[in-house]
Amino acid sequence: MFHEGNRALQDEFDSRALADRLVEKLRRDRFTEADAGFIAQQSFFFLATADAEGRPDCSFKGGPPGFAQVVAPDLLIFPDYDGNGMFKSLGNILANPHVGLLFIAMGERAGRLRVNGRAEVVRDDPAMAGIPGAQLLVKVTPIDIFPNCPRYIPRMAIEAASEYAPAPGVEPVEPKWKAYPDFADVVPPRRA
């Protein structure tokens, strides 16, 4: 789980034994029921990807609670929704399948869960039929799953779900920027 750069700093700060103990006690490569429950409650996470040359990108992924789902001990899925059409994250996954996901719960029951693994972008998966608004599906096979201490998570509350989050039987709301003169003529039609 650690490379020479990690180890050099662990040795400089005399934290190698602590790092090894944290891995020994907390790291896993399969989702637990508690992990699945925590992820199912979240309405967002951060997705880190890198292209074939290792240039990083970090993206916010949001939707209704449960849009990211643990469907097996060794598999997490999440939909790709209509966005800005740049496909930075998913394009990176096509070039380099290594990903990092960070789930954060804010508020009184703060918590964090990291999931590092390998991802694939899937089209026409039967699971997409049950996910309103899904235009693609991302499947993540975990390599390292581990919680982080929540002590630096600010105490914040989510006031309302995004009006853009897909919901069954609800017509999607188009963001205003897609109608701006600078973009309107190149915005493709939304895929069904």
UniProtKB/TrEMBL annotation:
Any one Pfam family match given in the protein's UniProt record, by short name: PNPOx_N
Domain Pyridoxamine 5'-phosphate oxidase N-terminal: 32-131
Superkingdom, natural source: Bacteria
InterPro entries: Pyridox_Oxase_N, Split_barrel_FMN-bd
Name listed for the protein in its UniProt record: Pyridoxamine 5'-phosphate oxidase family protein
Provenance organism: Phenylobacterium kunshanense
